[in-house]
Amino acid sequence: MSSSEEGSGTPDRKYSGVRRRKWGKWVSEIRVPGTQERLWLGTYSTPEGAAVAHDIAHYCLRQPASLDKLNFPSLLPPGLRTDMSPESVQKAASDAGMAIDARLISERAAKEEGCVHSHSHQYDDSAGGGGGSSGLTISVEDYYYL
Length: 146
Description:
With 146 residues, this protein is of the alpha+beta class. Helices cover 30% and strands 12% of the residues. One of its GO terms (molecular function) is DNA-binding transcription factor activity.
């Protein structure tokens, strides 16, 4: 699936495997290798949440030799299993995406309220998307369930 947006005429950041619904939510899905089946990864409030979900699923399903095509390769947890069923991959990817979504939403809300957060997970809103070169330093390892 390519990263495209539905409806909106404004340019948004592009992430692999992520698209924007016309009402503003971000969605992600991926094809299961060797089948015609699509694996729904979820609907997210942020494109980063959808992108992380896609990265986890892409890695688990396809075991790529290179991480160059992932959106946030540095967020893949060490020891991420690649021998899971599509349903387990779907849950792991969705959980990771939702965790990123929740973290970013709470950080943005706190930033808008003028609060200063003292935890180590930060998101740099000025960073560009794709290729893993972003200020997103949230680890999904804490949110990954086997």
